[in-house]
Amino acid sequence: MNKLRVYGCSFSCAFQDLKQLPPIETDEGWPQIVANTIGYKYVDRAEPGYGLNHILFNLEEDLYDNLIDKNDIIILSPSYFQRITFPEIDEKLINQEWVEFSSRYSVNVCEVISINVMRFCYKMLSLRRLGYKIYGWCWTDLNTNIPRCLEYLNKISDYIIYAPNKRLFWEDWILENPECMLIPGEKKSDGAFTGDTHFSKYGHKVAAKHFIKELKQKEKII
Question: How many separate domains does the chain show?
Fold first, then answer.
């Protein structure tokens, strides 16, 4: 049976850690809904809190172990481009913000974003050239104007699943559709936002419908 393999962070699974709200079960999350609809087996390789280093580590581990067939569909999210987590260096960094990482290692956030964008694009292009059916989707804005990053992302535009409003970054879309948010909120003048942008149960349904539509078009899935 072909598999839908999903790699990413909490936005790539049925995540809900708020005690005041009912849980979101696996079968209510967009990946399982998509897999059921297209007749694939869902393989959950997303981990809440993970940055691109951890996410690619999971993907590379599965490739090395020959767990991924070229008939499978891979959906890869880089999480926040500025998020830093290193499985090889410091597991404790999982819950730290990029500011703390920058303070510790003197790395500018713009440099972190640029590095992660390039790694994400190179991985997508490399696996595509090897014949894997991999698609990416980007959650967050780059937080700063980095033309070089947009240049790289444009190179993989054919393999990117854009948000329902055709925007590159899904966070832009969900902030305009608060009914899809776990806790509805809005963007503030300083660029921050209120609420919780993780998908609500309704948001998972909307996202699933869009992923299904895009995959059917790209993969000619009946």
Answer: 1
Question: What's the CATH code of the domain at 125?
Answer: 3.40.50.1110
pLDDT tens digit sequence for 63-77: 999 999 999 999 999
Quote helix, strand, coil % in the chain, to nearest 5: 45, 15, 40
| Domain that residue 178 falls in | 3-219
Which H or E run contains 73? strand 73-76
Task: Report the pLDDT value the prediction gives residue 38, as an integer from 0 to 100.
Answer: 96
Q: Three-class SS of residue 169?
A: strand
Least confident piece of the model among 48-57, 67-76, 182-191: 182-191
Quickly count: other Cβ atoms within 10 Å of residue 67's Cβ.
13
CB atoms within 10 A of CB 94: 17
Closest CA to 142 of 169, 122, 165, 118: 169
Alpha helices in the chain (DSSP H): 30-38, 52-64, 98-105, 109-129, 147-155, 170-176, 201-219
* CA 168 to each of CA 58, 71, 79, 103, 156: distance values in angstroms, whole numbers, following the listed order: 24, 26, 13, 30, 11
| pTM exceeding 0.85 | yes
